[in-house]
Amino acid sequence: MHRPALSLPLFSEPVDLFAVFVILSAIGAAALLALSIAATLRAGFRFWPPPAKGSWQDRWFIWLFRAMVYGLVAASLVWWFAPDRATPPMVWPGIALAVIGFAGAFASTAKLGWRNAFGDRNGLVTDGWFRWSRNPVYVLTWVGLAGWALIVPVWPVWAVLMAWATLYLLAARLEEPWLEAEYGEAYRQYCRAVPRFLIIR
After folding, report:
1. Cα–Cα distances in Å, from 39 out to 14, 21, 32, 59?
2. pLDDT at 51
3. Which of 12, 79, 87, 169 falls between 20 and 30 A from 186, CA-CA?
4. Is residue 100 a part of any domain in this protein?
């Protein structure tokens, strides 16, 4: 498949835009995974949720997450609009999963509260989507990522999608000690009543 390229003064050959955006996205995803894994293994090191608004963890999370997501979106669009691209066989189920998953993730994030979702202490939310899962944002995002993988079925995009999915798996576990420290017995009762994801406690 012919992919769009861009001629730049510093390069003798046209630059492959798909590769540029995938690399940008992969760097963001790899850095986020490395910092999250470090936080799970090293006592006293906290990356997510960030310890304070404006901390280096807060700033780096925002920029790395943007690099991952925006790079992935751009790479997917470059691939999708390539002139000789064949239509993926599972594109319509993929679109359905992506719409359902990401729309649900946005709705559950709105229910939680945007600042709450990024580490602020704005109250423990246990109703709505949160009656069935302690992490509906992550569960629904996984549905959306599965749809994305069907829409753009190429391995570099799949690799970043898998990294994103793994990042949310780690994030759910990293949040739990912080939530217990913030909300105490109310959070422990919530954990006993509602699974971490859907059927997995």
Report:
1. 40, 27, 11, 16
2. 84
3. 169
4. yes
Q: Where does residue 19 rank: exposed (0-12), middle (13-18), buried (19+ CB within 10 A)?
A: middle
98 in a structural domain:
yes
Beta bridge partners of 5: 16
Return d(Cα 188, Cα 126) in angstroms, integer: 12
Task: Report the alpha-carbon distance of residue 166 to residue 135 in Å, rounded.
Answer: 14
What predicted TM-score, i.e. pTM, was given to this entire model?
0.88
Domain presence at residue 54: yes
- Domain with 16, as residue range(s), is 5-193
DSSP of 135-197: -HHHHHHHHHHHHHHHHS--HHHHHHHHHHHHHHHHHHHHHHHHHHHHHTHHHHHHHHHS-SS
Domains in the chain: how many in total?
A: 1
Is pLDDT larger for residue 13 or for residue 132? 132
Q: Which amino acid is at 55?
A: S
- How many other CB atoms sit within 10 Å of the CB of residue 114? 10
Q: Give the integer Cα–Cα distance in Å for 15 and 183.
A: 51
Answer yes or no: is 75 within a domain. yes
pLDDT at 4: 55
**Interacting residues of 156 by C-beta distance below 8 A, sequence separation 6+:** 18, 19, 22, 26, 75
Q: What is the pLDDT of residue 185?
A: 94
